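Researcher: Batch entry, complex prediction.
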Amino acid sequence: MIELSQLTKVYGEDVVAVDQLSLAVGQGEVYGLLGPNGAGKTTTLRMILGLLQPTSGEATILGCRVSTDPLRMKQLIGLVSASAGLYQWLTPRELLQYFAIGFGLSLEQAFQRTRELAEVMELERFLDRRCATLSTGQAQRVNLARALVHDPPVVLLDEPTRGLDVVGAKIVFDYVQLLRQSNKAIIVCTHQLEEAERFCDRFGLLYRGKLRYEGTLAELRASTGQPSLVDIFLKLLRDDGSGNGSSNIDSAKEAVLAQ
Amino acid sequence: MNDTHTNINTATDSKTSVQATDSRQTAVPFSFAQQWEFTLKELRETLRDRRTIVTLMAMPLLLYPMLGLGLRFLAFQESSDQKVEYRLAIGSETEGAWLSEALQLGNSLLAASSEAKEQQPAPDVQLLVPNDPSEFDLEALVKNSAADVGVRVQLNGASVGNQFPATARVQLLQSRDSVRSRDAADYVQQRLAAANIDWIRQTSELNGKPFRLPVEQIRVLLEPAETGSAVLGLLPLILLLMTVTGGVYPAIDLTAGERERNTLETLMALPVPRFRLLVAKFVAVVAVTMLTGLMNLLAMSITLYALQLDKTLLGGDGFTLGLGCKLFLALSAFALFYSAVLLLLTSSARSFKEAQAYLIPLLLLSIAPGLVILMPGWNLASGTAALPLVNMLLLSRELLEGTVTLLPAMVAIVSTVLYGVAALAMAAQVFGNDAAAIGSRGGWKDLLQRPKELSQQPSITAALVGLAILFPAYFVTSGVLSRGDAQPSGRLGLSAAMTIALFVGLPWLLLRWQRIDVLAGLGLKKTSWHYYVAAGMLGIATWPWIFELVVLAQSIGIRGIDLSQIENVESLLAGWREVPLWLIVVCLGVVPGVCEECFFRGYLFNGLKQHLNATWTIVVAAVAFGLFHVVLAGGAAPERLLPSTLMGLLLGWMAYRSGSIVPSIVLHAIHNSTLLLVVQSRDLLAEWNIGQVEQVHLPWLWLAVSAGVLGVGLMITRLAIKPAPFSTKEPETI
Ligand SMILES: Nc1ncnc2c1ncn2[C@@H]1O[C@H](COP(=O)(O)OP(=O)(O)O)[C@@H](O)[C@H]1O
Ligand SMILES: [Mg+2]
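Model: Structure tokens for the complex:
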């Protein structure tokens, strides 16, 4: 359903954030786009969404191309971002309705959708409180619900568990399960490798803008001979380091292990 | 999360499910309901914030009463029709009795004489008489301003009486630097002098000699021309500055605030052109600004009224409802303009701090012209009416003074609104552009960057910026041209040159800058011959109707040019008699026809249609066209607004149908020329006793024939095959 072909982003003159990235994600599949900080994950998602113009390459969802039809593209995507804030002076109900109508739902549809999502995401208790007064966990649930107001076929999650406790992470986990059951195509970007192992079907290992390995956990184990994603990543850094000088290994190792 | 297997797809009906998505062809189309929801959110975000309410409500309520007291002090210092009171200190009861009798006598003598009585209200006189004369120090009283004047009277045993001239020595003690003290001394002196003269007259008449004063004096009080004063310049400055303070916080909050609180990314993920989101923010900022303006206006007028300052300051009827409405109109135009500028500045800011840093220079810049207009001698004229900010300050001051004239007022308002629209269009380019969304480079230097790729058509921003430059430039140059006293033919040539430079030169420059093919950008294309035929017919047949509309408008009292200016026009026409007819037709008919089409149906039209559908493109271009035609060299001509706008609709429709501006050029040029020929031959008509064309309706036969031709022309335009489809596609992103 989601197809990226040769997607490339160069910031300024020479910062290659994403380099010739190609991948495909099918319906009901959870794809883990993994990599240390600065690997180019956020940049990739923003290009798919049409918030950033790719330097070259194309992203396609259900035949809709981001380069020619960015507005329709946005309609097909729900975005969950760890850094996303809420409007402080609105209530969750108003916020959900705002986004629902923004995505083109009618007023009645927006009301109904808000009610349903409030039930599914258990927002009823604080649906009419100001967003500024919500706890981190409550705000996160509102954010997760917001991404689904228009019931998109594709959901992109950027570091969904960042800054959350165990309960918060569990909610995200359940949320991804729910999306999978609803047959959505999902990309989860994270640097939390162990967590990713638990809820992704397939993985792409992104390092310095390049996709280095791709496949299911079994496939990756077979091709690299390493037992876990962390080990696979460390091997990747070692390989990379042997070509580029050893100082890179340590810094990159730090990046991986600093979770 | 619920443990039950909730399937979130089936929750809503299939409209939004995956399958339906494929058939969704376009992104969310524009709808008012959606736009209202966007606006509502911005309003909630601002109005629920206490800071907004404080600037909105509390500030004016605190500021104006305080200001009012200060103003009252100033106004009393200046005012001349307030009742004054002189305090005269006098040494003893007897002296006091003598003085008051003498003053009374002087008063009645003065009142009876030719010196005009009603001009100045009689001052109250208060005599300060000591209880204990021994402790009474006249000099100290005057020095300490406890009394205005001290009076010492030495009576030579005489009482005041008409028959018995008495001798008395009167000494006046006056404080050197006080105006009031001098006036009081003058007051006493004048009355005693009158009494003296009367005594002399009576003595003389008693002796049987008729008495005549060798010199007779009359004093006439005149109203000063500048009724205003520094205070009247100060009020608009305070009013406008206070108004914009209302918009500052919401503007920062709704733009830089989105970035600061990390809500911008999800906002940008909406499948809606950014322009619409920005317009919602704009509406919210304008609403708050206008509310602030209204609050300030109310607080100001109530203060003026309560302190009884309005009549003193404004003269005439004081602060009327009509004046309030006009001021509010000016404030609203200003609010539109300033809100757009605020959004332009804050849209590129990454944080509150940065936004505030951008706004400080703006606020300082706003105060500077305010101080300039405090100086007398500045008024709304051809130079100042198009200057942003200065024009609104002057307009509000002239509204308060009651000295506004229509043309500069209209130009001030229209150009201010146009600047606002242009600033808003630029803000839409800056707001949330891709670099900005991710929180780094980008911002408003992008605006000044020339596009790298070739494009076919001007952007809507470029079109609106062009309009915002052209309108004031047109007003200023036509004002300058009307002043010079060149020969009629020279003047015609100049006006033609100006028309070319403005309406073709400016779009040409802008198109080159955007790297757009000039012919394509102006819409100069070949089209089917049917349109030329239709344009010719319409060109010949529309003028009687435009003419009738002007006459109709004038007959219901919409008329800008007053009689003195009509004389001007007459002399102008008389001057033209020496000019060959072809030159007039070329300079006033053909050249404007060609050039105005290049701009209104070419550059502006092509830019507008990037974002608007056909109808709105035609309407907006036509209204702009109509507004330009209200500006005449001699003054405003509001009666031309409707006819010119209708003409603009016709021309726009022709350009839309034919996909080219050449037919509209033909139509416009022929229309102008025929109208000129008719006006030129009006003397001839008058000789034939058809009467003054301007005041009489055209003969029915003419109207009938022209209606017929008009109908056929319209039919051809409607039925001819359209060469190229009119592009109404939504732009991808702004
Ligand atoms: N706006 C920008 N301008 C320049 N460089 C950027 C910008 N945004 C990100 N980068 C660089 O691009 C690379 C990828 O960043 P990002 O996609 O945010 O990584 P990730 O999300 O995987 O942590 C980083 O090296 C980052 O410094
Ligand atoms: Mg990231």
